[in-house]
Amino acid sequence: MILLEDASPVDADRTMKKIVGFGDSFVWGTELKNNTDGSQSWIAQAAKNLGCSYSTTAEPGCGNDHIAQQVYSYFSNNTAHNTLAVINWTWATRWDFYIVEHEKWITLGPTCVPEKLQYLVSETEAEDMIEFYKHRANSSILWNKFRNLQTMCAVQTYLKSKNIVSVQTYMDYILFDQEWHAPDYVQVLQDLVRPDLQLFEEQNFVDWSRSKGFAVTDIGLHPLEQAHAEACNLWQQQYAQALNV
User: What is the pLDDT of residue 5?
Assistant: First the structure.
């Protein structure tokens, strides 16, 4: 972004303001029209309206471990000055695995099929991985809660240690359920993580979109154009306050 020589100090400070989106397909804006670079999402629209620059590291289909990697990687290589991190944490049922022989991360989840993995492994290996996910990795709500909350807690601690301003939302209500699979060590994490999280008027992005009558795709559960436009209106003022613009 070019800074004009005659810009005032206020204008100069404003030109450096930036919003960065971290998350999965909801942050990327999957299934939105003309959205080849993530620039049509609600976060991108808000950044444009506020005169801020925008970038995203979101990756459709990823899990919360991957979202944590996005945050760590971005701020390891970019300044946090005048930057707002907008994070939308995803479903707890997604698992990010590292395939050693390919030096590549993959995500396994409820909708994962062998075809999604065959660019890395054979069909037999892909089927084995999915069977392991179904019958072992994803067989425990307790396990899902504990590992996701630990990941989110670590990122929140990192952001605070670096004085990085963030607005964080989440998709999966089960993370904060305390009636089932919530021993003391899970409740400790819930209490630590929950204060830094918000919802779309007490709902996740999908449920909020549906409750407002906005179109959501049947298979991908992706809110479409009207939902993103209205989400921009919902969050824009808070982003402005966080960045002091």
Answer: 33
Amino acid 15: pLDDT: 56
Total count of residues recorded for the chain: 245
Domains of the chain in sequence order: 16-93+149-243 (3.40.50.1110), 94-137 (no CATH)
Report pLDDT for 2. 29
SS3 60: coil
Residue 181's region, left for phi above 0, alpha for psi from -120 to 50, else beta, is left
- HSE, CB side, 13 Å, CA atoms: give it for residue 37: 5
Ranges under pLDDT 50 in the chain: 1-14
Q: Are 120 and 106 in contact (CB under 8 A)?
A: yes
Q: Looking at the whole model, is its pTM more than 0.85?
A: yes
Q: What pLDDT does 86 receive? A: 99
